[in-house]
Amino acid sequence: MLLIKLIPLFPLIGFLINGLGFRKISKGLAGWLGTGAALLSFVGAVSAYQAFMAGGEQPIIVNIFDWITVGSLNISFSFQIDQLSILMLFVVTGVGTLIHVYSMGYMHDDEGFGKFFAFLNLFLFSMLLLVMGSNYIVMFIGWEGVGLCSYLLIGFWNKNFEYGNAARKAFIMNRVGDLGFLIGIFLIINQFGTVEYLQVFEKAKGLSIGNAAIIAITACLFIGATGKSAQIPLYTWLPDAMAGPTPVSALIHAATMVTSGLYMIVRSNILYTLAPGTLEVVAWVGAATALFAATIGIFQNDIKKVLAYSTVSQLGYMFMAMGVAAYTSGFFHVVTHAFFKALLFLGAGSVIHAMSGEQDIRKMGGLGGKIKITAITFLIGTIAISGIPPFAGFFSKDEILAHVYEHNKIMWVLAVIGSMMTAFYMFRLYFLTFTGSFRGTHEQEHHVHESPFSMTLPLMVLAVFSIVGGFMGIPEIFHFPHALAEFMKPLFAGSLAVNPEFAGAPIDHSTEWMLMGISVAAAVVSILFAYSKFGGSKNVPAEDSAIEGFQKTVYNKYYIDEAYWAIFVTPVKHLSNLFAYVVEPKGFDGIVNGIGNLVDSVSGKVRKLQAGGTGFYLFAMVIGIAVILTMNLGYQVVETIKTFVGIK
Where do the NADH:quinone oxidoreductase/Mrp antiporter transmembrane domain residues begin and end (predicted)? Predict the structure, then answer.
């Protein structure tokens, strides 16, 4: 139990030490402190897994302290260790540790080295709270924490104005989704009188499918997920988040933070199973996001932007899986995607490091022979994300496509088209970067070199997992047990209880072979097409000024950012200016200042009555006596008249 409590405490301690002493602690010590904290959390995760398995695979609740008590509502600050939290702990701490190791080499020359590791540790602490919390409130604390850390890390190089704008954009767009999530939590409290997962899900078993309250709850929670996990319409922050250092892209925007929304849906699976209408929306939003982002990725020339839109697209596939109630398949892709996308981002960072900061793939080429470890590991990640067997991405993506096929054939066609685009633009990226002749400057070519061991070691480890990671979910047709599905099965007992058809009918083997064949063939065709167009770095994309027509529209991301700016940002700015320069100074300030000026003016006049002149005081006394006598005389006259006319 103690080790479970320490899992999030280690990175918090690392944050406090590096955060308070980053100006005094040496770079070497700061790096080892931050990395050591992440590694200790990983060791704690292993211990938590052992304790969980020894306890008969029953959820372990670790209460830290009782937090809020309002009437019958009790909210505790506590952790829950079960199948889902353990899997996320391994992903967050395992991949997180590798990224910390990588950062020691990548950020070595940065003047904010210690501060960077402090922020990484704070992010890890927040993410661990999110996945370990035993209720929605603790999850929300972690949820907001990773949002704050994304702002700090995206805008880490805050002297660049554009990077600061990217950080603010991520923060604000996440707040839009977070409002929906918060409303969903309030609705959960109203409906169930508790926020504890086990209690909420037990009470949910007594509700009917399509219950209006559950639909409202799941819809609000999904709004929160669209913000954190970058789905339409709240996806535009993620590509801009590439402004942060490359390890940030790998940690936050590939392996951990962007999967928060998916974790929340899997955790709340019984609620979503009770709301098939919400699930349908989730599925179609995921399909639209996967296809839309893939089309944009085809024409991007910034190595990190290609990977960013790839991330948005892959998240779309995961939401598609959630929407067709294939929770295990969707989470399977969360895990495999963490391996190969972290590998690709770190590989991109190694390329950028070798190219002295250059990120435009049009100015690269021929790097395969110069940075061989990076090239080989990047190729492994590219094959994995393209869905080629037996690499990790093949197993998880094939499983999603099979479930989507059973749910809706049109959605499956769209998903396959998106998959083909993924293979095309990823190999386009690989061919333009690593094959052909070098297109950079002579100075860049002179300085091109392989990254240090601290950067290549995480690449090699992640490459191994990108190859073998998919074997935790081998399809049934190969007659091997689906280890991940068996491990996660208890998580979905509630969904099976409220809807016996939740598990669905197994796909017959002939159909599964057909779908698998189509998926692989589509990917191979896309790879061959990419090779015919860009193999050997032929047909280098045109400069920005020469791009025109529909390609220019796609290259500029369909001008969605410009549309958002015109529809939302500009009107809000005009409204703000109206309040700032008209309503505030001439309205509120005018009223307040007017009252003050009136009081000041009147007091100035009245003050003169107390000037201290004896003559004026005698004059005032005479006037006062005259007024009093006049009033008394007037009163007597009025009374006399009333008596005379008989008025009482």
Answer: 135-422
- Write down the pLDDT at residue 505: 65
pLDDT at residue 289 in the model: 96
- The residue to which tokens 């839009």 are assigned: 176
Annotate 137-179 with three-state secondary structure. HHHHHHHHHHHHHHHHHHCCCCCCHHHHHHHHHHHHHHHHHHH
The C-alpha atoms of residue 324 and residue 408 are separated, in whole angstroms, by 9
- Other beta carbons within 10 angstroms of residue 69's beta carbon come to 10
* Count of alpha carbons within 13 angstroms of residue 421, beta-carbon side: 23
- 48-57 in b/e burial notation, b at 16+ Cβ within 10 A? bbebbeeeee
Are residues 128 and 139 in contact, defined by beta-carbon separation less than 8 angstroms? no
Sites in the chain below the pLDDT cut of 70: 1, 254-255, 503-505, 609, 646-648
What distance in Å separates the CA atoms of residue 45 and residue 40, rounded to the nearest whole number? 9
CA distance 219 to 271: 10
- Furthest-apart CA pair in the chain: how many Å? 125
Other CB atoms within a 10 A radius of the CB of residue 427 amount to 25
Residue 86 and residue 48 in contact, taking contact as beta carbons nearer than 8 Å: yes
What pLDDT shows up at residue 504? 66
pLDDT tens for each residue of 10-34: 999 999 999 888 778 888 899 999 9
Q: What is the sign of the dihedral through the CA atoms of 71, 76, 77 and 80?
A: negative
pLDDT in tens, 139-173: 999 999 999 999 999 999 888 888 889 999 999 99
Entry pTM:
0.89
- Rounded to whole angstroms, what are the CA distances from 216 to 210, 222, 293, 465, 490? 10, 10, 28, 39, 26
